[in-house]
Amino acid sequence: MKPLAFILTAGVGATAIALGASDALSRLWPSDMPEQNFRVSENISRNLLTGATKSGQGREMLAQATVASPPAAPATPPAAAAGQVDETALRYFARQGDQRRLEAEIARLRALYPQWTPPANPLDIPPNQDTRLDEMWRLYSEGDYAGVRKAIADRQAAEPQWQVPADLLERLALGEARQQLVNASDLKQYDTVIRLGAQNPSMLTCGDVDVLWRVAEAFGRTDRAQRARDAYLYVLNNCPGPDERLATVQKASEVLPRAELDALLALEKTVDGKREFQQVRDDLARRSVAAGNADAKVTAPAQDLATVERLAGEQKLTSDYLLLGWYYVQRKEPARAERWFRLANEQEPSVTAAQGLALALVELDRPAEAEAFLYDYRGENEEVRAVYLAAATNLLAIVPPVAIPPEVLQRMSAEIAAARNVNGAQQLGWYADALYQYETAALWFGTALGFDPNDEPSAYGLALMRWKLGDVAGVAEMQRIWAGRSARIARVGQPEPGSRQTQQPAVAYATPTSAYPVAPTVPAEPTPLAPRTVYPVTPPSSAPVAAAPAPAQTIYPPVAMPQTFPQTPYPQGVHQPSAVLAQPNPERFAQPPQVMAVRPAPQAGGQETVVVQQAPVARPVQRTAQRARPAAREPRRAGCSTTIDASTLSPRAALDRGWCLMDVNRPVEAAAAFEVGLRSDTEEARRDAAYGQSLAYLRLGLSDEAALSAAKAPQSRGRTLELQAALLSEKATGHFEAERYTEALMALDERARIVPESIDLMVLRGYAYLNLKRFRDADQVFRAAAGTGDREAIRGIASVKAARGETGN
Amino acid sequence: MKRLSRQILLATALAFSAWTDGAAAQGTVGAADWAAYKDRFLAAEGRIVDDANGDISHSEGQGYGMLLAYLADSRADFDRIWAFTRAELLLRDDGLVMWKWDPAATPHVTDTNNASDGDLLIAYALTLAGEAWSRRDLTAAAVSLGRAIMRSNVRTVGGRLVLMPAATGFDAKDRPDGPVINLSYWVFEAFPALAQLLPEHQWAKLSNDGLDLLEQTLFGKSGLPPDWTSLKEDLLPARGFAPEFGYNALRIPLYLVRAGNRDAELLGAFSSGITGPDGALKLVDIPSGAQKAALSDPGYRAIPAALACVVGKTPLPDDLKTFQPTQYYPSTLHLLTLSFLRSRYPDCL
Question: pTM (2 decimals)?
């Protein structure tokens, strides 16, 4: 690796610094800083923290950084010139066999002292006899900076003559600042991140790209997109690792607006005919199509659509199929949508795919197929149920009425009754009417009115059926109730001037733009498609669903009719065939709907205040004594087969329900139930709820949400480790699937520090190495895993061989 | 009560000019006491563990830990506690300290708000240590934190300078009884030290206005202040909290005497108000004046005992003269009390 000073002074990204700013910069550093070191730092600062100085904004940034607070000055000046290079750390790492840190240290010293040459074999270096200093380096290498601080102070007290090695102090300060920066970044304290970066410019090196990323993100999240862009550009211009380059653009794509991102993509290299950022470009196209899903008014550029279609063809990912399906179904291109949803359903049947396909089919005027396709999924969630009901309603609304097999009619009736769906019930009424089953039709209109007593079209249908059945008193009663509110109900039974006969209602509702029929007509002859004996419509009273809410007789009586009436006239299109219902709600369908449904609402600004307020309050109260030990959890309740709303339950009941739902693998609802459980009054129960919710989100693959949940209540060490490990597995798998292998490995490393790596994750690690063309590492880990007889691992060894053969290694 | 107010002001004005040889004298926490304290409450990574609250840590504990380490003249432990505080809690964009750290949560900080008593204690300890040990880094940190406190945590309410309990959550816009304050967050001894460090800010006014507020909140039959006070209209116990002289406010008399207050009338009132049977420290329901609890932990009992010493020269009971760690909070108060007596009233020990 080239010394950083060289790279910087060679100046790919170096720009002139505004006069005056250099003075400010020097105040950031103690004047006795080694010259070389200072120059490095200054250059990095110029690049990163001043941003594009041509606009002059850099000055402001630096000034802010300077005002913030003076830096912690090392108590002793660091070693000055080369020749006195402090190799203590190097020696320590060499003797520990810590190859990674050894290399990092060599790189660091080279950057700092370009004329210095590392020892040919660091292991030949005679051992350091200073065991107390060794101990400090050990603590340092374990990241126990507080421990190093203590050890230094202890030794200074015991040996007043002892001088802390400057190298140790400097690196310790840097390590602490890094820790602080990472913590601040994790807690979204972006100003703090930038302040720390400004105070510790020597932390901003290619040796620690993660810190560079965090600083860049901090700029981006605080509306300083240009500075963020410059920081990412710095990495691309200076840090050579291909994985880091790709990861940099990937990270930037989550932070930067597209225009700024393009500046990064412009630095793309083509290696072996392959564009290194292709994957990011692909993801951007996907994102653009997804943005079109989120907002029906946003059209994805044709180029992006073409890219995603190409990717779908090449990579055959269900997620791409769904992305396209949802995009097209919202753009009123149901035929295209159908194609993608069908592919999705064939590859990986899911509620989402079924729902999308049904929507497309409804749009294509093929509601029978939609109904048939969706029937098995209707209970999955409310949204799917709504689409199912829309399909069923549309099927009923077809003019002239189509023949619907009895079993289908029966199950549709049952669903409509169970859902108390006004439109569906009304449409069953019209369907029955079209089949001359006036009594049944009257029952369904009555049922619809029971669901919504103010529904004029249903009232009209009922009045009409009574008239057809010769129930003069019944018609008069309807006319009395609706007097002044519905002209057409008032005119039921009155001959329309000029009309030969009464009108066929089915025709009326099928042509919603036409005027309401003034009076019913009796068609000259029955529709051949609908002989009443062949296609009976099951009335609601015999609907096979136990939960059918209202038997017909309780709906019928006039008591169910409204006593107060809305003032507004009924719109003309009221009983328009309900195809409108079938339109996807763009907001909900932007992502796979079942995921969106459970995602917690974005935190409102006020929310923090609430939490905050309680915290210091609760604290002193608990000081008294140890918490009372909460009673052990009650045995889980037997059932959770119902779909009640958890928010109506007590926290305790919701908690039990949450566990029950987890047992039956309904994590979406379980997460909601645990949310209620979080309001429990005992710490134990809240912990339980947070733990459960975290597991539920993990099961849904929502690791971010899972992490949030885990933090909602303190957990025991065992549980924390379990959750952390699960989260990290999830993270690793997610990164791997997104082909972010370096980050997948980082997650795996982090996980391996807390729990032993399982065989399947070892295999994942192997493939991550393999994808990064780290064949030796891949081979090693596959072999270790294969030792247990794992088939995947054995296959991995073969894959490594094959890949090596291909690339000639 | 007007007369009393003036006396308090006079007493603290005196203390203000002589903060360096106040109660915060190094070596007044004995080596053995500190060793016992840290063995129990200081975890290796440098955090003070609140063992009665699920082993969490908080900015208040870190501040107390730094102050005690300074009083015990233990630079190593001070550095350890400070290193943890800086890396894990001193993260807020506004330069204040996040208050709550939970070992079992990820991320460990479970509430990013601050608590101003913690901020004040940490700034105070940094000021003392920076001065005593000639440590520029500590002094610089004290300057930053002191400025942040004044900038983000102190407001002018009705002409008074007021220390809010936290940067957010207690103002009039946040709650119906807001602004709400906690008078036990005024660590009076810290103000003179910070005034010397940052003379451009009104630390003396903040201190005096706190004393003025304290005088006006000696409600009810007991004449004791509540933990939480609403500044909305009249000064009243804040509605969202139990109206009691409780675990928060019990620190107030200790802070007063440590800051050099020797007002016999005020301290005498506290002494008779909080001293319970067998020297226990009474927690009192403000409206009724009834006793809510009698705390017998030595750390709590040390406070009325110290008042008896200051007001009536009564020596401490023998069992309070030695330190045995019990729980984080009372043990901390115990060491602060012993340190004060050792430097000011050695005859009582």
Answer: 0.58
